[in-house]
């Protein structure tokens, strides 16, 4: 559901401004530990864990075998599921720290993937294929590379007898990629809060972007906060009648008029600490008129002539436009009941990504006002979790990440980003566990095929990201 995951579709314009090249492939022979990691990654990708055709529970079984082989026992491992979703189970594993006062760190990952059909793909989506500097396969980027890094990290620390100050907890869950499945992160937050209690969580959503396929790493992101996903149904009803005697009072026409109004409407500009920091820091790197507008939007008072001019330019970039406000868009249509009858009902699903802190009812009321037709109804039909809460942007979180970005990607900025998509971090933040998407991994600006055809991950990025995240977690765990 991230999808984004992600957020910097416009990042390609930063190409050539900053240093940090990527190799086309992992050229040096793999070390034994890298070979073992690759085998784990391969096993994760090649186990179908989509909701429709696969099983997260089966994959969690395989993860448990790896962890037990590393030395974890019954006291360290918790399995969870619910009877009516037997294939959507997950696992929590705990590596105790030495400190009695420092709170743990939670590593979060989702095991499920969007379903992939072999007939649509160039390659078998459930076979890890390394080709041209990329790993191909469903889940290679979203998010089994990070899952493999977390599992590998926990296993190696146990085998090597590493004693961190902070306890490390790993939670691998299901249900992130749909709104109707058993969501393991939500279940843990609401029913097993003590099990996953932590100072903060590291989750998906961060990482860097290249200037394009085979290009340089131009930015690394720390994912800090996200929007709330809510669906509304707008519906027109009518007595209908025979199609041979039509009248203007028509449910489909009324729905069409409403959608035209929605298309023309923009929710008002909004900023928070994360988006201000993003535009202020990314603007100078972007350069040109767009870069100047990014800096201006972060510094000028909202509503001022300077702010309005900057907003108008930023709105021409779809990613920036979405980061600056709540957005709503029609995604599904239905209407009518016979080809020779006037429609008695016509409706549309409107998918909204709500800026943090804005209540869902306030958005519904805005849609009613925009449609301005008392004969139509606007109802909230579902949501993807509680109201989004932005975690604090603190030196404790940003400092170690900035140091490692400078080490691994010299000259590349670390920029905080608010996701316009959605992650399971929203459930953690609702119960007081801030969730961040760390830098380290990176992908191409087109999203690397996540949720789509021929999903891929850059080979070099996976191995470098593994080293980066191992160092980052150790830094956090011993601060």
Automatic annotation (TrEMBL):
InterPro entries: ArgE/DapE_CS, Bact_exopeptidase_dim_dom, Pept_M20A, Peptidase_M20, Peptidase_M20_dimer. This is M20/M25/M40 family metallo-hydrolase. PANTHER family: N-FATTY-ACYL-AMINO ACID SYNTHASE/HYDROLASE PM20D1 (PTHR45962), N-FATTY-ACYL-AMINO ACID SYNTHASE_HYDROLASE PM20D1 (PTHR45962:SF1). The keyword Protease applies. Belongs to the peptidase M20A family. Residues 224-373 form the Peptidase M20 dimerisation domain. Keywords: Hydrolase, Metal-binding, Protease, Signal, Zinc. SUPFAM superfamilies: Bacterial exopeptidase dimerisation domain, Zn-dependent exopeptidases. Residues 1-25 form the signal peptide. It comes from Novosphingobium humi.
């Amino acid at each position: 559901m991230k999808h984004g995951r992600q957020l910097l579709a416009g990042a390609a314009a930063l190409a050539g401004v900053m240093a940090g090249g990527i190799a086309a492939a992992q050229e040096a022979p793999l070390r034994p530990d890298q070979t073992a990691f690759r085998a784990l990654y391969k096993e994760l990708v090649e186990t179908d864990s989509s909701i429709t055709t696969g099983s997260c529970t089966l994959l969690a079984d395989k993860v448990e075998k790896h962890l037990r082989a590393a030395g974890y026992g019954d006291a360290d491992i918790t399995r969870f599921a619910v009877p009516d979703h037997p294939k959507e189970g997950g696992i929590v594993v705990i590596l105790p720290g030495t400190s009695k006062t420092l709170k743990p760190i939670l590593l979060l990952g989702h095991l499920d993937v969007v379903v992939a059909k072999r007939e649509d793909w160039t390659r078998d989506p459930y076979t890890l294929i390394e080709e041209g500097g990329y790993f191909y396969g469903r889940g290679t980027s979203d998010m089994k590379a990070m899952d493999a890094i977390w599992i590998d990290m926990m296993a190696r620390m146990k085998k090597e007898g590493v004693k961190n100050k902070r306890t490390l907890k790993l939670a691998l869950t299901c249900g992130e990629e749909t709104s109707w499945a058993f969501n393991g992160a939500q279940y843990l937050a609401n029913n097993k809060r003590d099990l996953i209690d932590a100072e903060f969580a590291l989750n998906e959503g961060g990482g860097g972007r290249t200037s394009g396929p085979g290009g340089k790493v131009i930015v690394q992101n720390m994912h800090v906060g996200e929007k709330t996903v809510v669906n509304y149904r707008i519906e027109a009803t009518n007595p209908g009648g025979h199609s041979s005697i039509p009248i203007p009072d028509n449910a489909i026409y009324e729905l069409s008029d409403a959608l035209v109004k929605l298309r023309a409407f923009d929710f008002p500009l909004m900023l928070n600490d994360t988006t201000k920091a993003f535009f202020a820091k990314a603007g100078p790197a972007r350069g040109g008129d767009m870069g100047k507008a990014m800096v201006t939007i972060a510094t000028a008072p909202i509503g001022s002539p300077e702010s309005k001019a900057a907003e108008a330019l930023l709105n021409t970039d779809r990613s920036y436009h979405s980061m600056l406000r709540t957005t709503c868009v029609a995604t599904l249509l239905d209407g009518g009941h016979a080809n020779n009858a006037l429609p008695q009902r016509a409706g549309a699903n409107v998918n909204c990504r709500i800026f943090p802190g804005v209540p869902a009812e306030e958005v519904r009321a805005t849609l009613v006002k925009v449609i301005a037709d008392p004969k139509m109804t606007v109802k909230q039909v579902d949501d993807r979790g509680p109201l989004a809460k932005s975690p604090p942007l603190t030196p404790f979180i940003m400092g170690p990440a900035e140091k490692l970005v400078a080490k691994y990607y010299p000259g590349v900025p670390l920029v905080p980003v608010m996701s316009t998509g959605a992650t399971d971090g929203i459930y953690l933040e609702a119960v007081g566990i801030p969730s961040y998407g760390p830098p380290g991994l990176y992908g191409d600006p087109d999203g690397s095929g996540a949720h789509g055809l021929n999903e891929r991950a850059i080979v070099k990025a996976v191995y470098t990201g593994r080293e980066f995240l191992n160092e980052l977690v150790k830094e956090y765990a011993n601060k």
